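Sequence decides. Consider this:

===
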Amino acid sequence: MTALWSALERLPWSIAIREGSYLFPTIETVHVLAITLLVGTITIVDLRLLGLTDSGKSLRALSAQILPFTWGSFCVATISGALMFASRATVYAGTAPFQAKMGVLLAAGANMLLFQVILFRDVAQWDRLAPPPRAKLAGALSLGFWIAVVVLGRWTGFVMS
């Protein structure tokens, strides 16, 4: 993998991001804003799953309103994160916080996939009621995973400094 990361770092746009005065901070700002929107929208749904917000609103309606923002911000965060990674891929790939962040992102994705495939298909039964314990667990895990992603992302930035 080191050869792949080295090749990625040698791309003209990777060099421009790494060596330019304003490109990396601009991309990082976009990344932080996208992560903020991403985690914020996920938190709204997770708090609903935990029963900590108005259960009078349908989870399906809430999800339909919020998920376009979630997916849009996820795409922007992924692209901006990949651009920052490319600028120093060999260094990032070798840091424990970055590796842990990628692992937690996979866990968050698996949690979401399991929720959608297993729990959300029965949402009509509890859509306006208190969510079942398994849905609450999925919401709690999601919150924990995304908090960990933010912490590990910041930690990666400090390790790299």
Q: What stands out?
A: The mean pLDDT is 93. The two ends are 23 Å apart (CA to CA). DSSP finds seven helices and no strands in the chain.
